[in-house]
Protein 1
Amino acid sequence: MKKLVLSLLVNNEAGVLTRVSGLFARRGFNISSLSVGETQNPQFSRITIQAMGDEYVRAQLVHQLRKLHDVKVVENMELEQTVCRELMLIKVCAGSDTRSQVLEGANVFRAKVCDLTPTTVTMELTGDTDKLDAFITFLEPFKIIETCRTGITAIGRGKYTLNHIKEDVLNG
Amino acid sequence: MKKLVLSLLVNNEAGVLTRVSGLFARRGFNISSLSVGETQNPQFSRITIQAMGDEYVRAQLVHQLRKLHDVKVVENMELEQTVCRELMLIKVCAGSDTRSQVLEGANVFRAKVCDLTPTTVTMELTGDTDKLDAFITFLEPFKIIETCRTGITAIGRGKYTLNHIKEDVLNG
C-alpha cells in the first residue's frame, strides 16, 4: 500500500463528482482526501484525489475513471515530479498566559494568524500533509478547538503538466 | 442568488461523499467548490461546500443533508463570522525576460514560489476567492500553463465553532 495521487479534468456539471466518488465507493476504496476546484476554463473542473493502494488498485482506478464520460483526463501523478499542498485552518485555545507560545510556534511553521480573540487564536497553514500533522502535534497541548483541511491539490513540476492533454481535449 | 457555504461533519467512510454530492446532483444544484479533509478524530471528515442559491435552496439543502445517516452536523456558515480560505497552485511561462516581473507580482500577492525552471515559475497562494482571481488576472499576460485550486475551507471566528456540536456527537 502506498499513497496514490490522481489528478482529473472533468466536465464542470452537477453529478460528475457523484459518479467519480461513487466509483471509489462501489469498489470499497476510501478516499483519504479529495479537492475540487475551478480551472481557467469554466467548462472544466480539476479534481485531486489522494488514496492508499497498490499498483493493481492504481491501474484499476485509472482504467475505470477513464471510462466515465465526463472525465476528460486522468493522470497518476509521479510523486517525485509533483508539488502537493494542502491548506489547514486551525483554532486553538490561547489566553494571555499561552498566547505568545502559540504565536511563536506559528512563526516557526510560517503559519498566518487570521483571527484572534481574548481566548482563541485561528491560524492558516499550507504545506504537505506531514508539515500540517507536525503543526497539529505542536498545538495539541494548548487544546485544539477545530481543524479544517482542504485535502491536497497537486501540480507537476516544470514541464510535467496536464495541459498538453487539456489542449487536446479542448480542441475536440 | 447568493453564495452559500455549508460545513459538514460526516462519518469517514467510503460512500459518504457520494451520498452528499448525489443529493446536490439529484436536485440539479451545481457545487462551485467542495473540499474534504480529515479532522482530529479519525472517525469524522469535514466537508466544506460552496454553492449558489437563495434562502429557499439553503433551507432545503440543510434539511435534506441532515436526513443523511452519515452526516452528523450541517452548519450554514454566516459569512460575516467566517474565515474562508482557498489554496491555489499556479504555473506560468516565465523565461529570463519576464521572470522578474512574475516574481515581483508573487511578492505583492505574498505568493510562495514552489518550483522554478528556466521557462516556468510555479507558485502557491492562499486567500479568499477574490484574491486568487486577482492573481490569475495579473498572471494572464504571461501565459498560464496550469491552475489547481482546492476549493474553499471555512472556519468560524472566535466562539463560532462546530465543536460544541461535535462533542455532542462524540458523546452519543
Note: The first strand of chain B starts at residue 2 and ends at 11.
Protein 2
Amino acid sequence: MIALTLVGIGTGNPQHLTLQAIDALNAADVILIPRKGPGKDDLAGLRREICKRVLRSPGPRLHEFDLPVRDVKNPDYQGGVDDWHDAIASVWDAEIRAALPDGGNIAFLVWGDPSLYDSTMRIAERVRARMTLSVTVIPGITAIQALTAGHAIPLNEVAAPFVVTTGRRLRKNGWPKDADTVVVMLDGNCAFESLAPEGISIWWSAYAGMGNEIRIAGPLAQVAEDIVSTRSQARSMHGWIMDTYLMRRAHESKSEA
Amino acid sequence: MIALTLVGIGTGNPQHLTLQAIDALNAADVILIPRKGPGKDDLAGLRREICKRVLRSPGPRLHEFDLPVRDVKNPDYQGGVDDWHDAIASVWDAEIRAALPDGGNIAFLVWGDPSLYDSTMRIAERVRARMTLSVTVIPGITAIQALTAGHAIPLNEVAAPFVVTTGRRLRKNGWPKDADTVVVMLDGNCAFESLAPEGISIWWSAYAGMGNEIRIAGPLAQVAEDIVSTRSQARSMHGWIMDTYLMRRAHESKSEA
C-alpha cells in the first residue's frame, strides 16, 4: 500500500511553503524528484533546494528520476496530453515500486497548487489504476495569489465574478462574457495582443514570488509592447519563463453612464 | 511612516501559514486584531491562537480593537459596503495612530488570501488616503485551494477555463456562459438550488481546512438536499459557517455526441 501526498510548494519562493507542507514532506519515506531534461532543470534544482531547507534529519530519501518528454508536435493537443500523462504514469509506477517495494509514504512536490493547471493529480489517478494508492493533497500558494500579492491588487472587484482561462482560449474566444476580470494562465504567445486594448488594464508578472520577479502594470494600450519585449528577453536570459496576468476592463455600466 | 503588511493566513488551519507569513508577523511591531462582536469571535480567537503559535519572543504587541458592524438592512448593497469600509478605515486610522504614534511596522492577519473576496485591501486603500502608508501583501492559502485539496480534485479541466462567482450572481444569472467549471463563494442561500441539476456534479466543503471540515460531493440532483440540511445544522451548531463549492457540468460536446 502506497500513500501518495501531493504537496503544493508555491511558485518558486521557498518561503511560500506552509507548515502543513513541511510536515507532509518530513512524514514521507521517499520524495520523488522528477528531472525534465537539460535546460529545464531549474525546477528540479528548486525542489532539491526546498528539500534541503525544510527536511529534518534523518529525513526522507530523495528519489530522482527522468521524465518523458511531451511530443509538442502532436497536432491533437488533448490526445498528445493524454499520451504524455500515460507515459508519465508508467514511469511513476516503476519508480514508486523501485523506491518503496514494501509500500510506505511517498511525497511529490508540486509547483503552485496541485489543483490549478497542473497534471500531477491526473497522473496520480492513472497510477492508482495500476497499484493500491491513496492520494492526499496539501494546498499551496498559486501563481494567481503570487501575482495579486506582488501587485498588491484584489483579484475580484467587490462581490464580482472573475474568469480564469488560458492564452489559447483568450485568443480564440476573445474577452469572456461573464466577467470584467480575467486571469490568463499557460499563455506562451502574449494572447492579450489579440484584444482591442481600449478600457483594459493589465497586471503582468513573470517568475512571481521568486527573487527575479518582474512586474509590469498599466493600461494595456500603453504597456503591451513593453510586456512582449520584457518577456522575450527574460525568457532568453533564463531559458524558461513562467508568467501570468490579470486584466480588468472598465465596467460597461460606467461607459454607458 | 507606517508599513502595513496584509498577511494571508489560510482558511483557519494554523498549519496553512507559510514561512513568509510567519516571518512577516514576527517582523511587525504591532499586530492588529479586530473583534467582530459577540458570537462572531471564533475568527479573533483563531488569530490569537495563530499569533501564540508562531510569534517568537519578544514578539510584536497584539493590539485588539472593535470593528463597526455592517448595516445588512441597507437595500443598496454596494453603497452599504462602501459606507462600511469607510467606517472601518476610520477605526483603523485611529487604532494605528494609537498603537504606533511614531510610525513602524504593522501587520494584519487576513483569512484566506488578501486578494480573494476580502475587503482588507480596499480598507487599506482608504487608510492610505488618510496617512503615509505602504502596503505589502503576503499571499495565503485560499478557500478555493482548501476546497479542492480536501476533495483531492483538480480545479480546472485540462487547459479549460473556470469561473469564480458569488451565490447572488449564480442565482440571478444562472450557469456562466464561459466555462463548465464554476466555483461559488459568498453564498448564504444555497444558490445551487436555483439550477436544473441534470449533468451537474458538486463538491461542497464547510470550514475547509479546519478540524471540523465537512465535505459532501456527488451529482447535484442526489446531494443538494443533504448539503442544504448539513449546512443549516452546522451553522446552528457553530453560530457561523464558511462554505464554498465547485460545480462541473458534463461537456456540451459530450451530450451532443
Note: The first helix of chain A runs from residue 19 to 26.
